[in-house]
Amino acid sequence: MWRPLLCVSTLSAFLLMGAALQAPTAGPAPAQSPAPAPIPPEAAAMVSPVKVTPESLAHAKKIYGYDCAMCHGDNGNGKTDLAKQMNLTLKDWTDPASLKGMTDGELYYIILKGRGSMSGEEGRAPPAVLWNMVALVRSYSKP
Ligand code: HEC
Question: In angstroms, rounded to a whole number, what is the distance separating the alpha carbons of residues 92 and 72?
Answer without folding.
Answer: 8
